[in-house]
Write a structure and sequence with these properties.
CATH superfamily of the largest domain: Alpha-helical ferredoxin
Shape: elongated
Largest sheet: 5 strands, mixed
Bound molecules: iron/sulfur cluster, FE3-S4 cluster, FE2/S2 (inorganic) cluster
Helix content: 25-40%
Structural class: alpha+beta
Number of strands: 7
Strand content: 5-15%
Number of helices: 8
Radius of gyration: 20 Å
CATH topology of the largest domain: Fumarate Reductase Iron-sulfur Protein, Chain B, domain 2
CATH architecture of the largest domain: Orthogonal Bundle
Distance between the termini: 52 Å
């Protein structure tokens, strides 16, 4: 099939403002949008810039807007889009070049919730590991699946309005550790996400949940965090 591929282009070294370029490419219905981008870069215009690494939905580096929705280019098939495909950078972060955005504000927000395991108590008597029951592990299983692609945060209207909002990805990371019964910094994290740039900025828009390529129930996780800040309970 022939696909009309419209791609957002912006090169700050030569362009005064962004524009779109349109390419006509032959594609199989099972090709991925990433394959089309690779084709354009390899055979039509080598200056096209985009991020990619694993090409298998694991690294989270190729999040873009495809026909108006945030998705991973490597997980989105042509057959699910039709023969007119528009690819744009994710919104709310500064465009560096073409489809590449500055991810620094996103990772700065992520770091604010202390997204690492904190436990300063001595190890158990056998000195080996901190055991956890399957039920306790299940409590935060969903939020362990995040690949930090930013599809959620950059589809959130509250984040577009103010990039100091921590955003759903950072809240997902907070959830992953707050509900881990081996971790000892839940209270500190709950305090951080209770501040003005945190949970209060979530107005339950659900865009984040719709956008997540890992199908994490983000809005539900944020709801659990809100409840925990009110009740102080982590069960
Ligand atoms: Fe991406 Fe989902 Fe993680 Fe958000 S929660 S960064 S959409 S994997
Ligand atoms: Fe934004 Fe998701 Fe809340 S889209 S407003 S973080 S439910
Ligand atoms: Fe790694 Fe798409 S290139 S997730």
């Amino acid at each position: 099939m022939e696909v009309t591929l419209k791609i957002f282009r912006f090169n700050p070294e030569v362009d005064k403002r962004w524009h779109y370029e349109t390419y006509r490419v032959n594609a199989e219905p099972t090709d991925r949008v990433l394959d089309l981008l690779e084709y354009v870069k390899g055979y039509i215009d080598g200056t096209l810039s985009f991020r990619r690494s694993c090409a298998h939905g694991v690294c989270g580096s190729d999040a873009v807007r495809i026909n108006g929705m945030n998705r991973l280019a490597c997980k989105t098939l042509v057959r699910d889009l039709g023969d007119k495909i528009t690819v744009e950078p994710i919104m709310g972060l500064k465009v560096i070049k073409d489809l590449i955005v500055d991810m620094e504000p996103f990772f700065e927000n992520y770091k604010k919730v202390l997204p690492w395991f904190i436990n300063n108590s001595p190890l158990p008597a056998d000195g080996k590991e901190r055991l956890q029951s399957p039920e306790a592990r299940e409590r935060f299983d969903d939020t362990t699946k995040c690949i930090l692609c930013a599809c959620c945060t950059t589809s959130c209207p509250s984040f577009w309005g103010s990039d100091d909002y921590l955003g759903p990805a950072a809240l997902v990371a907070a959830h992953r550790f707050i509900f881990d019964d081996r971790d000892e910094a839940a209270a500190e994290r709950l305090q951080i996400i209770s501040e003005t740039s945190g949970l209060a900025r979530c107005h339950t828009a659900f865009n984040c949940t719709m956008a997540c390529p890992r199908e994490i129930q983000i809005t539900k996780a944020i709801g659990e965090l809100k409840l925990a800040t009110i009740t102080g309970r982590l069960d």
